[in-house]
Amino acid sequence: MGSLMFSLSLSRLVLWASGFILVLVFLKLAHLLLRRQKLARAMDSFPGPPTHWLFGHALEIQQTGSLDKVVSWAHQFPYAHPLWFGQFIGFLNIYEPDYAKAVYSRGDPKASDVYDFFLQWIGRGLLVLEGPKWFQHRKLLTPGFHYDVLKPYVAVFAESTCAMLDKWEKKACEDKSFDIFCDVGHMALDTLMKCTFGKGNSGLGHRDNTYYRAVSDLTLLMQQRLESFQYHNDFIYWLTPHGRRFLRACQVAHDHTDQVIRERKAALQNEKEREKIQKKRHLDFLDILLGALDENGSKLSDADLRAEVDTFMFEGHDTTTSGISWFLYCMALYPEHQNRCREEICEILGDRDTIQWDDLGKMTYLTMCIKESFRLYPPVPQVYRQLSKPVTFVDGRSLPEGSLISLHIYALHRNGTVWPDPEVFDPLRFSPENVAGRHPFAFMPFSAGPR
Ligand code: HEM
Ligand SMILES: *[C@@H]1O[C@H](CO)[C@@H](O)[C@H](O)[C@H]1NC(C)=O
Ligand SMILES: CC(=O)N[C@H]1CO[C@H](CO)[C@@H](O)[C@@H]1O
């Protein structure tokens, strides 16, 4: 009798629980459908490529060459078109200077639908933060990038670069082609560790290499997640093999960050090291973070501190690695420009064999080549915002508050009206005369506005 009662109440419990879950699922679905309708209706006046009933444009975007796919869409749909990652996240994808200006000159917040995917990894650092807290951190960290802090970095860059070139000289003897991306990545991480994170002269250790591999993994997984709507929900994603791999790689990255922070804190315990820092006129990034400025109660919490270190560790080497790799690719493709750069540098150096801060400003042709390579291969090809108030574009079409915007920097940089023969590598596009006549939002490899 007793066990019958028990099983009755148990089955009733199961019934209630299933009912409850069903209602939750239903509410979530209704919420998503409403949101979808709102986003879609807002973009009514923007025609775009056909959408798959389930995947939206995700299938096209997942394929290699998807950046060029968007360029071909841009030809078909001038200024802007809707872009759907699955059914519930729909952006207005823009790639025209006046459209870019309308949004990026006013400082709308980041689109959390995209940037929240970063949270597990880099937390709420400068890249993801909003509002007063963003402003506070930004103000706090700006002096860490004062010219006087940056100047001595040039010697570090030169040293790490020489180490990379030595490696390549050996590899070149084998007379086989090899992938440079990974070596450039190690060089970039090595300079970052030494400059921004005050690491000694030891070069990359085992832990740094593990970190480097974890970040390669994380960037790929992030991209894949964004494009796969079934992965958008945190709870579901963490249960999948990809999600678990993401969490494991996050753990590796966080261990690395904690180690960097621990080592610097330990160094600060040392009396001599503290004196050295107090004597410095300009503090570096990590000095500032670790509370050199904390007397006014603006000390960062541990979570904030880790988020900033993780953010800079990622942003500081991933972008530069891809920027430098693509630049070298361009130089390899166009030996005539490579030779002009070499001549320019040889002339500046004279009989010296290493570069100094003052030399950089004299490298005008090299700078134009770097900009042209940023135009063709922007290290950050797409950035996202959510409108905090309505916007009306130059052609009279408008979007309401809450709409999602994707600025496609890659397609913007290939607009044939602004950049005649856009696929041609021509550094003279960045001569002072040519720059003077150009729309200020036509070239934005570093995004624009307050962010
Ligand atoms: C070629 C090199 C680089 C490129 C092309 C680049 C590009 C960008 C872009 C496009 C954004 C805006 C992102 C958005 O709007 O969502 C950004 C933000 C940011 N970048 Fe870079 N970046 C580069 C190098 C670096 C380096 C070396 C560091 C650090 C040492 C860094 C740290 C940051 C930070 C902290 C932010 C967020 C700023 C804020 O919102 O206040 N970046 N970067
Ligand atoms: C390129 O920019 C010009 C001038 O801003 C604009 O008229 C044109 O529609 C743009 N092309 C595309 C493909 O967006
Ligand atoms: C709240 C607080 O501690 N404010 C101090 C900030 O620092 C200045 C001097 O740098 C002090 O005068 C303030 O009292």
CATH architecture of the domain at 122-333: Orthogonal Bundle
Structural class: mainly alpha
Main sheet strand line-up = 1-2-6-3
How far apart the termini lie comes to 69 Å
* Range of helix content: 55-70%
**Net shape:** globular
Helical stretch tally: 21
> Could you tell me which ligands this complex binds, including any ions or cofactors?
protoporphyrin IX containing FE, 2-acetamido-2-deoxy-beta-D-glucopyranose
Could you state the CATH homologous superfamily of the domain at 122-333? Cytochrome P450
Main sheet record? 4 strands, mixed
CATH C-level label of the domain at 122-333: Mainly Alpha
Assembly classification: single chain
Structure, explained:
One of its GO terms (cellular component) is endoplasmic reticulum membrane. Pfam families: p450 (PF00067). GO terms for molecular function: heme binding; iron ion binding; monooxygenase activity; oxidoreductase activity, acting on paired donors, with incorporation or reduction of molecular oxygen. This is Cytochrome P450 4B1. A hairpin with a 3-residue loop joins strand 1 (about 80-85) and strand 2. The protein has 21 helices and six strands. It is globular and about 95 Å long. It is about 60% helix and about 5% strand. It has about 450 residues and is mainly alpha-helical. The model has no long low-confidence stretch (mean pLDDT about 90). The protein has helices at about 1-40, 60, 65-75, 95-105, 110-115, 120, 130-140, 145-150, 155-175, 180-195, 205-225, 235-240, 240-270, 270-280, 285-290, 300-335, 335-350, 355-360, 365-375, 410, 430-435, and strands at about 80-85, 90-95, 380-385, 390, 400, 405-410. The protein has a domain at about 120-335: Cytochrome P450 (Cytochrome p450).
